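Dissemination and training. As part of the outreach component of the grant, students in the summer workshop were shown how a complex can be specified as a set of sequence lines and then modelled as a single object. The example used during the hands-on session is reproduced here so that future cohorts can follow it. Participants entered these lines:
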Amino acid sequence: MSTAVSPLAPKSQPKMPPIEGVRIATAEAGIKYKGRTDLLAMVFDAGTQVAGVFTRSKCPSAPVDLCRANLPGGSARMLVVNSGNANAFTGKKGRATTEATAQAASSAAGCASSEVFLASTGVIGEPLDPAKFTHLLADMAKRAEPALWPEAGKAIMTTDTYPKYATQTVLLGETLVTINGIAKGAGMIAPDMATMLSFVATDAPIAAPVLQELLSKGTAKTFNAVTVDSDTSTSDTLLLFATGAAAKRGAPRIDDAKDPRLQSFRRALNKILKNLALQVVRDGEGARKEVEVTVTGAKSARSAKKIALSIANSPLVKTAVAGEDANWGRVVMAVGKAGEPADRDRLSVWFGDIRVAHEGERDPAYSEAETSAYMKKDRIRVRADIGLGRGKATVWTCDLTKEYVAINGDYRS
Amino acid sequence: MSTAVSPLAPKSQPKMPPIEGVRIATAEAGIKYKGRTDLLAMVFDAGTQVAGVFTRSKCPSAPVDLCRANLPGGSARMLVVNSGNANAFTGKKGRATTEATAQAASSAAGCASSEVFLASTGVIGEPLDPAKFTHLLADMAKRAEPALWPEAGKAIMTTDTYPKYATQTVLLGETLVTINGIAKGAGMIAPDMATMLSFVATDAPIAAPVLQELLSKGTAKTFNAVTVDSDTSTSDTLLLFATGAAAKRGAPRIDDAKDPRLQSFRRALNKILKNLALQVVRDGEGARKEVEVTVTGAKSARSAKKIALSIANSPLVKTAVAGEDANWGRVVMAVGKAGEPADRDRLSVWFGDIRVAHEGERDPAYSEAETSAYMKKDRIRVRADIGLGRGKATVWTCDLTKEYVAINGDYRS
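and obtained this result:
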């Protein structure tokens, strides 16, 4: 595996302010990694509301099952995340582990076990022994403190080459509220698989059903619009916690997703989700280039997204980008295979602002030299206009390099 | 690009007998390649019936358009195939080229232009100048002879590392008939794309509608069950020609797909299609291992095939095979993401005959050493039993190696 930091990593990390009502602790449980933290606990004040979205895999991990079961309660007091073992495809043992962890966490935080949320990332198929870390939770809950967001981002990394943070401060009514988010990305060591975890918290007083609507809509154009290799994890988990602590400072309680006062908050939340999602793409295995794929003129937005994902997941498009090859023929191929309405003779393709194909053939003004120069950039924009309607979508991916094959093909050691 | 022959190439090539009623010529037209043949003509006796299946791409090549237009006539007298240029996404120029070629071929063979079939493979988006080769067709039609099947296989190669042949001799009624097939596979040089071409001919007297039914059914479990990289070409073409010459030797004329005398012929044809399809997989870019993926116990055969393709197209499964890593967790992941009915706790997975996972967790008898030894083989069988029904499907693919990325990421020279 590669240990060098991705060339696409952010030049600097944001300063993560505390979120009132959220306390954080990390620990070295030694689940798989040595000499680094691999356990994260977040403790939430009473009254914290929660929303979540999860993998659509038919083979979800045991922690995903537990989160799904606890989510309808809408209330969260403790989050426990471990790296190094995904507790996925572990049968009854996996469930026993999540039950034991929820039990230990509920004692530690003094809450119901239905107010505990869990996530695990790492090797799958390997039983996760709860005895390795449950004894640490009581002490973690006691010593947890608000300022440790940077440590939280580090404890959940697997083969990520950098921790991923985002923060926004925004007016709710006339009160400033803060939103913090962390994520881990598509890091893999055989036999791990890409597990995308992200946790977002705010002090805004927003009810769980409203949070859920914000989160479900917000992911469509952010986390659900990125792809590293088309492989969906068993463990994808995105949780949003709202402590409500800003109510004491005058922030209005929001119980209706249509409340106009939510507008700025929604925008800020979506910025965080998009920022974290793009950081995940930029840290895709072996990634050297970020690729933004926009499809316009499709029959519908849904159709546009399907075509965009067909382009973004095409190994031929991704290897061409890795090779800095302005191979627009492969974009045409990926449009053609998407199974969505398309008409060869109305199709146009751009790399950046350079139109390379128009109305079913190479653009008469096509310049190989100009396009090749563009392909040398770190960030490549591909656009396909289908010419049939007004459907539009943008998705993000990274290139496919030999390093990806090396990271995922090297034998387990 | 790699020029070494695939390690999965057949140890020996079959002797290809002539097919009565088919004459073959090849030529060096210099369309793109130098010092090798790049033009193939097959001339068929009057009365030859034809069937075809083509890419489902919404951006098909101009020759695919022409074949689709001529197919309803059911009659074929000449096939012209060039390598080095796919004549795809070439707009009106592309159509002018196919019309000029069909015109020249019809004069050469003394037939209607609707009895001409064309295929092109190679670079896309680059206009194909018919003047480069149409003047050769008259001479080719004149000098064409039956024994040149080996030359036919070579003239259609692009970056294939070996030509692909298959032949069967089988009883139709009480008369021996012969079926020959050639194919070109997933060879790519930037900016080419995978173009799968295959041509099959027989002397059996079988009517076009019957041929079409045999071909459409036969491809489902052969050509439509192989995948190298999930990218569908703009040019995929499979044509089946029946000269009917065996009728003179007593073979019965078959006008009904339900004719019981077709049974052996159907089996032999399917063997040819499967043989050629597997040769294409074994010559996938960078391939070092063939992978057979079987899904059993799915809700339906359609569902089984979708899950099998999800496994076979997963970059994580394919890199694990390349790394000789018995990473069954990635098979579980691919089952989970397929979007088909599946139940984690009923799922079992085998590598070869070794059951590695059972009922939602690692098999209690799992042996890392035994499974790792199996993964060193050239030919890997993966099986997933979904445990929900009786749907079954098998598909074939190859591993994903650094060589694939090199072949497709190297800049156009």
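The domain at 290-409 of chain B is CATH 3.10.20.340 (Ubiquitin-like (UB roll)). Students were then asked to discuss how this feature might be tested experimentally.
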